[in-house]
Amino acid sequence: MLDDSKLIWMDGKLIPWKDATVHVLSHTLHYGNAVFEGTRAYKTEKGLAIFRLRDHTKRLLESAKITLITPKYSLEELEQAQIDVLKVNNYNKNVYIRPLIFLGYGKMGVSPKGAPRQVMVATWEWGSYLGDDGIENGIKVKISSFSRYSVKSTMGKAKAAANYLNSQMANEEAVDAGYDEALLLDEEGFVAEGSGECFFIVKNGVLISPPNDYSLNSITQDTTIQIANKLNIPLLRRKITRDEVYTADEAFFTGTAAEITPINNVDGRVIGNGKRGHMTEKLQKSYFDVVYGRDSSFEHFLTYVK
Ligand SMILES: Cc1ncc(COP(=O)(O)O)c(C=O)c1O
User: Fold this and answer.
1) 3-state SS assignment for residue 22
2) Which residue, 97, 125, 153, sits at the end of a domain?
3) Cα of 22 to ligand 1 centre, how many Å?
4) Are residues 62 and 193 in the same domain?
């Protein structure tokens, strides 16, 4: 996975992995203001291709704008940095791309004013986030005792490092209790999102996913919706309650890392027949066709790294 023979792009330069370090008094390390992306590049028949590079890079800059740490690099420069780091490192498998904008060394105190903005892009080979078995047979999910943080506080449209404390606590609680992942509810008790995924259920042939009020503007959720539209699958965007989750015919998570991962059990309740559901399987297959460049109608989502 992490391979220290590779290069990392840092503040405009490709440098050896081991040299991509920061000072212990870096501002972000203490006060948590950083934004990042998680993007995948797939080994397609035509070579390595980054999936939805423009959308991920736009979201990175929007996150930085929300948290007031806009870097000195443009959208195009940040896209090129991600392409360059993949070109220079030879990969044989699918790759995960992690751009991060953070505040470096130079001042202490809560105010970020005066702390230098730094940017890095690191890449590594990464397989299924929730396991190959999870992709095929589904995972066990626990509804978290932690609410998803409020839109009135840290602003969920930013993929901000600080927001992931909420995700970490929920994930740790679920894993320690013997589950694979957490599902967080919003403050009113409606489904928000997973610790790193958006959520769908299938009920009576209809695909349902909550609005993005209490979740990231997920790119995989959007891809799934576009696929569902193409396949003429009826789709609703509406709030989902906890009891609707338990009685769903199918349920699954979507995320760049998680891809489309079926859910077979929530809080000890078996979902559907306890296996990957038919609609989930159909969407999953189509999703992999899209990311691997086998569906020409979604070819515009791929940036080939020559
Ligand atoms: C909290 C959270 N929600 C949802 C998602 C899914 O977003 P995307 O599909 O854009 O990767 C992620 C992953 O990035 C996430 O971390």
Assistant:
1) coil
2) 125
3) 26
4) no
> How far apart are the CA of 216 and the centre of ligand 1, in A?
6
- Ligand 1 and 215: CB distance under 6 A: yes
For the chain, the distance separating the N- and C-terminal CA atoms, rounded to the nearest angstrom, is 22
- C-alpha pair distances (Å), 191 with each of 105, 247, 250, 274: 39, 14, 15, 21
State the average pLDDT for the chain: 97
Q: Which of 72, 159, 282, 306 is catalytic?
A: 159
Tens digits of residue pLDDT in 16-45: 999 999 999 999 999 999 999 999 999 999
> Per the domain annotation, does 91 fall within a domain?
yes
Residue nearest to atom 4 of ligand 1 (CA): 197
Question: Is 59 contained in some domain?
Answer: yes
Strand-strand pairing, 39-44 and 47-51: antiparallel
Q: How many domains does the chain have?
A: 2
Task: Mark whether 159 is an active-site residue.
Answer: yes
Q: Which domain holds residue 231?
A: 132-291
Give the CATH number, domain containing residue 63. Answer: 3.30.470.10
Q: Report pLDDT digits (tens) over 121-162.
A: 999 999 888 888 899 999 999 999 999 998 889 899 999 999
